[in-house]
Amino acid sequence: MNSLEEELTADEKEELAEAAILAGRGYKIGSLLGKGAFGEVRTASYRRYDGRVEKLACKVIDVKKLKEDFMEKFFPRELEIVRWIDHPHVVVTHSILSRRSKVYVFMEYASNGTLLAYVKKTSNIPERRVQRWFRQLASGVHYLHGHGWAHRDLKCENVLLTESNDVKIADFGFARPVRSYTGKKEKSATYCGSRAYCAPEILRGRPYDPLVSDVWSLGVILYVMMCQLMPFRNKNPKKLLREQESRTWKFPDRVLAAFSQPARALVLSILEPVPAKRMKLNAIVDQEWMKGRDSSDDDSVR
């Protein structure tokens, strides 16, 4: 009978060797959290020099599966932005390790999963919680924009919930700087992000200001938190664009009764299909509704 070593495939042998090397640096990869076209996200841990164990998440990127344009353009940008991020409502990177065909991005672990998962299991989210979470989201996006970067893929799946009931913006695979190396502001021409959260200017297929389109995506997230459904549900891009431009969305009756007029007015100002008329992020963070009383444990995430 063959030995265990002989029975292992080449890929399995490589995984064991990688695990041993990571363990030598204090890291251990755990269970699967999510999977994408170019890799996966897993739980992880890091044993500090003092013996304490820190729980992390790890994005494992298989470089061999990256498409050429992603490898040349998007992937280097993601690695660049995650190196310097430091904000309480943006996922902070612990370390980045590159090993052969794999890149391991170790980052903060958000134990309560995604905002999408929370919305799906919750019939109604109180206005105070929506207010608090949206204030945190806007703060995180404001930080990114202030450092000259657009996220370009803001959606409920990319908003994580921590053990302390705070939100963290994650996944910078489509993030990009908004200025060229000469300092000139540049528009985006790439159709990226999730269609249901895409601004009309992206669906029109013309160059767009990614900072302004990020604001639209924030508006969709705010609507979803308030209503537990999408404002625009058509999967056909042309029909979706017509829905956005004709402002066919509305609030369910239960939301009209449960949420204040300033909250509803804010969504209306953000989901403005004309980019030049859309509320600016600076104006959003200055809204009185955004300054409402915070409550760190208004009701624990269940």
From TrEMBL:
Keywords: ATP-binding, Developmental protein, Differentiation, Magnesium, Metal-binding, Nucleotide-binding, Phosphoprotein, Spermatogenesis. GO terms for molecular function: ATP binding; metal ion binding; tau-protein kinase activity. GO terms for cellular component: cytoplasm. One of its GO terms (biological process) is spermatogenesis. ATP binds at K59. Residues 27-290 form the Protein kinase domain. InterPro entries: Kinase-like_dom_sf, Prot_kinase_dom, Protein_kinase_ATP_BS. It comes from Darwinula stevensoni. Pfam families: Pkinase. Coiled coil: none annotated. Its cofactor is Mg(2+). This is Protein kinase domain-containing protein. The keyword rRNA processing does not apply.
